[in-house]
Design brief:
The chain is an all-alpha fold. The protein is built from four helices and no strands. The chain starts with a helix and ends with a helix. The mean pLDDT is 80. This is DASH complex subunit SPC19.
């Protein structure tokens, strides 16, 4: 009987060692369980939506943004038109000034020859009378001023005609 008890005790000890080893293995596996549960946890990064819901969201976004976009486009086009008109007016002013400069240069040379003849006439008249010479000088100056004014008005009218033709062509 002692032999049978001894084999039972040894069998029980080996069972205890096996159970202890199993407990250690399970303990090692369970200790890492919180990390494993976090690693294995599925996270939804993208949510799938049905197509009609997506289209409704797109349409509501479009309805919300469209008025703002049209307003901004209107403001931008008005600003561009204003800048184009300003550019045209500056070009017209430049052409007018160039015309004035070129006509002034031509008039200066013509005025010199006319001025010399006017001086000769005024000298002759001075001999006749000082009052007639002063009146003649005033009339010559008035004539020059009027000639300059007429040329300026002609240049302006030509410029306005060009602008009118451009605006009619643009429409």
């Amino acid at each position: 009987m002692a032999a049978s008890l001894s084999s039972s005790v040894s069998s029980l000890r080996s069972s205890l060692q096996l159970l202890d080893s199993s407990i250690n293995i399970l303990d090692n596996g369970v200790n890492d369980f919180p990390r494993l549960s976090k690693v294995l946890q599925t996270t939804r990064h993208f949510e799938l939506l049905p197509e009609p819901t997506l289209r409704e969201a797109q349409q509501s976004l479009l309805d919300e943004i469209t008025p703002s976009i049209t307003h901004l486009l209107h403001v931008a086009s008005k600003h561009v038109d204003r800048l184009a008109r300003r550019e045209q007016s500056l070009k017209a002013k430049c052409e007018l000034q160039e015309g004035r400069l070129s006509s002034n240069e031509g008039h200066l040379s013509a005025n010199n020859s006319q001025g010399q003849s006017a001086k000769l006439q005024s000298r002759r008249l001075m001999s006749d009378g000082g009052s007639k010479a002063a009146e003649l000088r005033k009339l010559i100056q008035k004539k020059e001023r009027l000639k300059y004014a007429v040329e300026r008005l002609e240049l302006q009218s030509r410029q306005r005609e060009r602008e009118l033709r451009k605006s009619m062509a643009a429409q």
